[in-house]
């Protein structure tokens, strides 16, 4: 898979006078994991929603490999190679693991309406190819043994893996993960960190939105820190963890 470089230039978003994102500029480089961190309410998810087209930016531009996608609708942004997961897992609990992942492969199937209505051979071939790709993705994320299990019966960590596999089924160039480690125990976080590193090694650009600075430091090549909608720091994990402005944002001035 080929990654893409994401660039935000002075992106801003207001909600009824409240500044949620305030002139944020950042670069998520091709084939790397970029962490976007900050305390609760710092503007991380709003930034992700702007990137994916759920919110229009009030100012600034979003570039993917130099192409301005700021005005694209969410479906067009997805077709351009951007996939995401959500803070609250959004899966079909009564569907199997494989069925849920197949939903992500839909836009890459070659069959058209006529193929479906007439049940032409191309439909069967397209469905077979999609199933094979999705089964490979289940192996990639480590849940191939759960392919026929109903999602509603899975552990929290395994449901996260299903959601990531479904996002990968769209064949993204940029994968946005919104607090994927939330609610996980130590062992689940360690396993997820390995998976994110494996996804990066496939060549996919990853932007990881997180509150947990310890978790992000395990996998990110570069970290950008937001607080009250503004960028307050950026750098490598080792540098970020020592910055007074970051320590203050997380712990408060008195504790810091």
Description of the structure:
The chain has 256 residues and is of the alpha/beta class. The chain has 2 domains: 1-81 and 172-256, Rossmann fold, CATH 3.40.50; 93-171, no CATH class. The chain is 38% helix and 23% strand. It contains 10 helices and 10 strands. The chain has helices spanning 44-51, 74-79, 97-104, 113-118, 121-140, 156-168, 186-201, 213-219, 237-240, 244-251, and strands spanning 6-15, 18-28, 33-37, 59-64, 67-68, 82-84, 174-178, 205-210, 222-227, 230-235. A 6-stranded mixed β-sheet has the order 6-7-8-3-9-10, with helices on both faces. A 4-stranded antiparallel β-sheet has the order 2-1-4-5, with helices on one face. Helix 3 packs parallel to helix 6 (156-168), helix 5 crosses helix 6 and helix 7 runs parallel beside helix 8.
